[in-house]
Amino acid sequence: MWGDTVGKATGRHKDKRLSAADVRSLKRGFHADGHGLYLKVEPNDARRWIQRITIGKKRRDIGLGSPPRVSLKEAREKALDNLRIARAGGDPTAKPAAVPTFEVAARACLAELAPTWTGPRQSAIWWRSMEAYIFPALGSRPVDEISAQAVRAVLEPVWTSKPETARKLVRRVQAVFRHALGRGYIREDPSAGVTNTLPRHTDRAAHHAALPYAEVGAAVEKIRATQAWAGTKLAFEFLVLTAARSGEVRGARVSRELPHVGRRGDVAPEGDHRARPRACACKPGRGRVSPGRSPAVET
């Protein structure tokens, strides 16, 4: 087959040897262009593009179409793409997997991320935000057809009106595109750098004023005097005594996770891998934090 090669070059390999006129006029044989690309001219003057390439240590011949339907420029681009894939260890002849829509990719991404989170509530919030802001515009579109401009357009309406929501959406959209990129559905992430094209956020988080230490005792007494449920008041006192986070206290189980006052123990909602040892701030032996008794607070 390759014995019919015409005009085989010697010495250093050259790219782009053929011209458009050569594609039309060359006679029977295999005519090299570069990157393994050849123009094959049959005895009946039929012409087609062939690329000779090594895939997984095996030499393969790939058909790239026929001129003029596939131009010389297009054949060169295809040959170069195939060469890059093969050099990266891939197979340019492999049938590509069906490209999912953004919503389908998001569902698969969430299924991978959810087990690393603390509970189902975080997954539900993640998904609801995508349903509310992202899916109406991008959900039904294949991930490989979504441009950076499309990503920017969907973020722009909430970027200045709901800055914190917008920042979370950016992280979630980027997670979906990273998922798609890792599975070969896309070759680049259209959400990368999109925040650089949007106005700079100037919002600042507003925190509650801290309570002076000398007033803590009076504040606890005030809470005790309210008509709130006893469990709520005890939880508040425990939070003050241990400096635990409110989420840890709300989710803790009294029978298993709350330590004796003055000792150390892990206080966190069930299944929370972020549990940290907490030391109570009152004197040892003054009581147990439980529905039956309230610990003493120095006033």
Keywords, separated by commas or semicolons:
alpha+beta, 4-stranded antiparallel β-sheet, 39% helix, 299 residues, Double Stranded RNA Binding Domain, disordered N terminus, two-stranded antiparallel sheet
What report would you give on this structure?
The protein is an alpha+beta fold and 299 residues long. The protein has three domains: 2-87, Integrase, DNA-binding domain (Double Stranded RNA Binding Domain, 2-Layer Sandwich), CATH 3.30.160.390; 102-197, Orthogonal Bundle (DNA polymerase, domain 1), CATH 1.10.150; 213-279, no CATH class. 39% of the residues lie in helices and 11% in strands. It contains eleven helices and six strands. The strands form two sheets. The protein has a four-stranded antiparallel sheet, covered by helices on one side. The chain has a two-stranded antiparallel sheet with strand order 5-6. Helix 4 crosses helix 7 (163-182). The longest helix has 20 residues, at 163-182. The radius of gyration is 33 Å and the shape is elongated.
CATH class type of the largest domain: Mainly Alpha
Strand content: 5-15%
In whole angstroms, how far apart are the ends? 98 Å
Number of domains: 3
Low-confidence stretches: 1-12, 260-271, 279-299
Helix content: 25-40%
H/E element string? Answer: HEEEEHHHHHHHHHHEE
CATH architecture group name of the largest domain: Orthogonal Bundle
CATH topology of the largest domain: DNA polymerase, domain 1
Strand order of the biggest β-sheet: 1-2-3-4
Could you give me the name of the CATH homologous superfamily of the largest domain? Tyrosine recombinase, N-terminal domain
- Would you tell me the structural class of the helices and strands? alpha+beta
Q: Output the radius of gyration.
A: 33 Å
Q: Please summarize the sheet with the most strands.
A: 4 strands, antiparallel
